[in-house]
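Q: A reviewer asked whether we had any structural model of the full assembly, not just the individual parts. We don't, so I'm hoping you can provide one. Inputs are below.
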Amino acid sequence: MNYSSLRRRHFLKYSAVFGSGILLSQLNACSSNSSKPAASESPAASGVASLDDWSKAPNPELAKEQVKDFVTYGMPDDWANYGEVRKKFAEKYGFTFQHQDTDMSSLEEITKFDVEKNNPKAMMADIGMLYGPLAESKGVVPLYLPPNASVLPAGLKASTGGWAATFVGVPAFVVNTDVIKNVPQTWADLAKPEYAGKVGAIDPSSSGTAATSFLSWVYASGGDETNLTPGIELAKKIVPQFATAEGNAQTLEKGEVPIQIKYDYNCNAAAAKVKEKGINAEVIIPGVSIYAPAAIMLNKYNVAKMDVAKLFMEYVLSDEAQETFAKFGARPIRYVLGDLKLPDSAKANWLPEAKYAQVVQVKDWTKVDPEAIGKAWKDDVLGG
Amino acid sequence: MDSKVSIESAVLPSDGFQPRSLLQKVTQWLADWLPALPILIVAYGLLVAPVVALLIQSFLSQEGGFTVANWAEVLASRSDRRAIVTSLGLGAVSATSSLAIGGPIAWFISRMLPVQRSVWLAILNMATNFSGIGLAFGFVAILGTFGMLTLAFKELGIPFAPPAPGSFWGLVLAYNYTNIPLFILLTISGMGILRHDWLEAAQTCGATQWRFWRSIGLPILTPFLGAGWLLVFTWSIGLYGIPFALAGNGATRKVTLITLQISDILQANISGQGNAAVLAIVLLAIAALSLLTYRWMIGRTAQWF
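A: Here is a predicted structure for the entire assembly that you could use as a starting point for your response.
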């Protein structure tokens, strides 16, 4: 019997061949990956939507079928009144739909759009506007902007397409006043020893709300989007105050996490929800904060649902949808721009203007870099 | 080789030699390799291929070209460096405390009567296999902020606060629940090496217990204990389920570990998934290094068998 084929040297040789085989196949896959988008962007067979069709106007007939499974990320019903907006949208077009949402942070949404490109689930997502340019550079949003987005100036919508600002919020906090008797009034107050373990944790390296909250700490400490350092110092004092439990409606109600940082409109909703159960809560605009727009972004890869996605993006900028956001307490972007008059009834849920006296506008949103904020947070605040 | 060939040709007269048909060759080759096929598939498909893919991914830019940026980013990032150091520290602390507690227990169990010993081994086996999310839940239920023991101590007025489940020492505690039994099971076989005669012989020569352990017992057991330490260490730095369940999500987390950092990157990261591949390779390198040391140590024990 000749066993030479089983000798160690042969075995190693085969291993080497096999290993380099994998290597080559991987490299091939990589190079073909990079050419793939170009190939699929070419006109597809008739009847099947392709990426090219994003620039076309939406077809309501097709949308009727597509809307049946309304899948979104980070747009639950109680987020800035999106539940009512969707209901009115369906009424307007005579749609019936089943809504399904998975709540996640802005960066998770962009990552999810990208990794699910071959099997897209969501049609759209709500993001902090500072993540819009990132979504564009990652190529997850389509080349589409509805006609009514033309009222938005550059910076409040995508330069090529795919996202547009919807409404403006102010990072603030909601306090369970049954548990916290001495209510904190400013961001710096949160660093006081009495609030240790009481502040809901936030992650500015991933979430839009958290990133803009961090940016408002920067402004409150005298910095701006090009100089984050003063905010880092404040953040280092607030981080040790974070609760170990997650901040949500239940922990606010139980008093486990009695101080939670959210946009003012979501604070209002959270406070209203616990007040229904007989628990006292207060919304605090913490002195210096910033006006932070949220945006809607469409999923480029979900071409099968593109008509309803386009229609919805157009709808959220309509008078009706903008007023629905306002009713909830969010400042509609077109109202902020002076393009829309709101009846007083729509502003009934707003906090008194006086509370916003020190809230400032960010100087230049194009200079707000989510990557720099994430890095400052991970390396300088948590790691420093 | 040459001599072998000449012997074969001498045994088989050249004129009567029939060249083997292709079919025979194929059957022969299959007979040689087929039994090895399962292990080859496992080894290449589940070990070599993923490692090669990871290595390549760690050098890929987001556009698909070659780059060392992922490595530079991870090594320059304070949070990634902290994750690596914390993982190593957690592994070392957990392995060392397993050694300190598990070593003596292994010795006592190895000296027990067979019946007693099997009962203990059964219990230890069970504890070793109670891990992951289940263990995390048990930990929170017993020692969490509203855990049974925590509340009981509070009721009794004893000022005792267990380490928070998500803290470094909380994780050490949770890890050790499985690591100490694991350490005992790994080293108990080695304890049999130390014969009672040796102790008696040493005592006859007037040696104290302490002197016996220092000069004979520990030097002989060191490779076994060291190997156990290394295995527990490697096992600990690779854990994901327990820390994920105990340390919470990105915002509330107090401790960063390599495994948690990898999952964070896969969920959401601006500079792509390459950094996750880099961290995975770092984890792999640590494990490979520690297993090589383990092999070397175990090799030193061979002299006692």
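A: Points you may want to mention in the reply: Residues 12 and 18 of chain B are 10 Å apart (CA to CA). Chain B touches chain A at residues 28-29, 32-33, 44, 48-49, 52-53, 56, 60, 63-64, 77-79, 81-82, 145, 164-166, 248-252, 254, 256, 267-271 (CB under 8 Å).
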